[in-house]
Design brief:
single chain, seven-stranded mixed sheet, globular
């Protein structure tokens, strides 16, 4: 475990924190006016290895060799020239910081960090972090990597959980959830929607599935996996050649058949490493999924409870005003930004057919694929 301190004066800026993998939805912008929850679990932090935040440079200003050296192999709108390795934590784990009023970028419904660090060290005034809480963004505190230092906490070392321990914990991520929107004259409006976490995870996985396909059709398992992936795969890949088969693989599942070329596997929530079979039978392309998403796909939980029909008995008072739980009223769509962010960082994107998909991404989004 670690605490982060101000690089200027050494004042402690966080509670003790343990490192986990950067969530697939860390930079997601979801919908319009949606009130997203906190990105990070209390007591955890993650590091984004890539630069993020201002200043930004348009693609036209960047030489392809420079972009490739940064691991970007296809055009994007812009790339950040900020410092790499920003640290993200839950806002409630911050200590000893103050808002910088003149750095209030955003203000649709909150702060978006577009003007650079908007939080300062209370002790010395050094800008140390960006508080994010605007609508459609995950609430977070991003510590500036050049303004903080990481110090170990004595006697607090714990190894990452094993796959068996993770399976025993059973922390899966439900595929749909109630979302809150702002702007109603009667207050917030809640509706059931596909989980933003699932949409970001699917966007990242879909990029890997296309690369693994080598331009052939791909099939995925029946059930929720088909709801999540098959429509996009059918729209983006050609018909005709023999299809490649993607199957779920991981702890607690039977070993995949010898003819399986694509494996949907869990990524460790603490280390980010993808699960691999102990004795791989044949070479296969591993497509990583966040552990909670993979766990629900591999071992789906029973349908979430729905309130019983009929009125409330006399003398019983309700203590909630949530709508009944129901499936979303639209087809699943992978997150287009997560898809693009992942695909442009895979060297295979240099293939003409994958570049064509990227160039038509706006069309695919308008068609409801993303």
């Amino acid at each position: 475990m670690f605490v982060f301190v101000c690089a200027g004066c050494g004042a402690e800026l966080t509670a003790p924190l343990s490192q986990v993998a950067l969530p697939a939805h860390a930079h997601q912008k979801y919908g319009n006016g949606v009130q997203l929850p906190v990105l990070m679990e209390p007591g955890t932090f993650a590091v984004d290895p890539e630069p993020w935040g201002p200043p930004w440079r348009r693609w036209e200003e960047i030489h392809p060799d420079e972009a490739a050296a940064r691991g970007v192999y296809a055009p994007v709108y812009s790339l950040s020239d900020g410092a790499p390795s920003a640290i993200v934590i839950a806002p409630g784990d911050t200590r000893g910081t103050l808002l910088i009023p003149e750095k209030g970028g955003g203000y649709c419904c909150g702060l978006d960090g577009a003007d650079g660090p908007n939080m300062a060290c209370e002790a010395c005034g050094l800008p140390v972090a960006s508080r994010i809480d605007d609508c459609s963004l995950w609430q977070a505190m991003w510590l500036a990597p050049d303004a903080v230092r990481r110090l170990p906490v004595d006697g607090a070392d714990t190894p990452p959980l094993s796959w068996a321990e993770l399976m025993a914990e059973g922390k899966s991520t439900p595929p749909f959830e109630p979302l809150t929107t702002w702007g109603s004259p009667l207050g917030s409006i809640r509706r059931w929607s596909w989980s933003p976490q699932w949409e970001a995870a699917a966007g990242r996985a879909l990029a890997h599935l296309l690369v693994a396909s080598a331009g052939r059709p791909v099939t995925v398992p029946d059930g929720l996996a088909k709801d999540v992936f098959q429509r996009a795969l059918d729209a983006l890949l050609p018909t005709g050649p023999p299809a490649r088969r993607a199957v779920l693989a991981g702890p607690g599942l039977p070993a995949p058949d010898a003819g399986t070329g694509i494996l949907l596997v869990p990524a460790h929530p603490q280390t980010g490493e993808a699960w691999t079979p102990a004795v791989p039978a044949v070479p296969a392309y591993p497509v990583p999924l966040p552990f909670g998403v993979w766990l629900w796909l591999a071992f789906p939980e029973p349908d979430l409870p729905v309130p019983a029909a009929g009125g409330i008995p006399d003398g019983v008072l309700r203590d909630d005003f949530d709508p009944p739980i129901s499936r979303p009223d639209r087809l699943f769509r992978a997150d287009g930004y997560a898809f693009q962010h992942t695909l442009v960082r895979l060297p295979a994107v240099r293939s003409p057919w994958l570049r064509e998909i990227l160039e038509n991404l706006t069309h695919h989004m308008r068609a409801g694929i993303f």
